[in-house]
Hints:
Blueprint: E1 2-11, E2 15-18, H1 39-50, E3 54-57, H2 64-79, E4 88-92, H3 111-118, E5 127-131, H4 137-150, E6 156-164, E7 181-191, E8 196-204, E9 213-217, E10 228-232, H5 234-256, E11 263-268, H6 273-285, H7 300-303, H8 310-319, E12 333-340, E13 344-351
Parallel strand pairs: 4-5, 4-6, 11-12
Antiparallel strand pairs: 1-7, 2-3, 6-7, 8-13, 9-10, 12-13
Amino acid sequence: MNIKIVSSGCYIPTKVIGNQDFGQFDFRDENGLPLKDNNERIAKKLQQITGIEERRYVENNLTTTDIGTIAAQRAIQNANIDPETLDYIIFAHNFGDIKHGTIQSDIVPSLAARVKHNLKIANPSCVAFDVLFGCPGWLQGVIQAYAFMNAGMAKRCLVIGAETLSRVIDLHDRDSMIYADGAGATVLERTHDGGGILSVESASHTLEEAFFIHFGKSYNPDLDKDTKYIKMYGRKIYEFALLNVPKAMKSCVDKSGIDIKRIKKVMIHQANEKMDEAIVKRFYELYDMEMPEYIMPMNIQKLGNSSVATLPTLYDMIINKELENHSFETGDIILFASVGAGMNINAFTYQI
């Protein structure tokens, strides 16, 4: 019995925010002092490092649950299944529903429960719960679904990754330019077909790294100190990721028994183009290989970093042949990997 992704769906917000749209922002440092560089130079540096040219934000009337529901509906429709047959709905996010113009996160009931309600699923045996695991949340949701199905506890699971980071960014912090909104969903099934998930890997580094990404006050000292925004220590994250993520990826591949040369694509969380390239390059160095051309699909240039949504969105785009120079064929071996707040790392190998 194999466990496969049988369908996917995503929601890409319609509001396009280019780097030039940050031109009038009042960026400060952590001490509240204005940055020395002008905003044009700041945006140029950001693009050189992260690859981000533009990102997507949700319209004011939408929440994380709303866009997660849309992605879920599309995945269910593409799978051509009755939603009543779902055993689990696993919703990965980090900040819940934050309505436009408010600052309070709403996670009761869970976002998974809300999606189940929106899908009008009556079956009480369809269990809905949320996963808060930083940016690797969707991937961890897939690993949990895999574990449930391997244990005989489920035959079909819906895993959603959605986030509206535009609602939790500090507009006085240049790091806010990285973040974006989006949603992706996948349906997984136990099947007798070939392929599927071959191996998994997860880790949480919390002794010294737990607060590398955290909630903190605005860099504008005139704003309420009790209102919190997403913050990160970029250099520490970069160094941590380069040291630990390639090793986790290698461990996952080695567990699968697959020859490294058979990997067709490395699907890595769209966090930062330069960092992702460095991670994948170092991963191949562990096998005394150079990083192959076209091995690492990227959509961060146009979609930014939408946290848990980056991987399922990227997968859906490739499945639908919407990403130049990238495609999947039956039998291809794919390596998924992610890193984020926690600090958490995970990966799984997958055969199309």
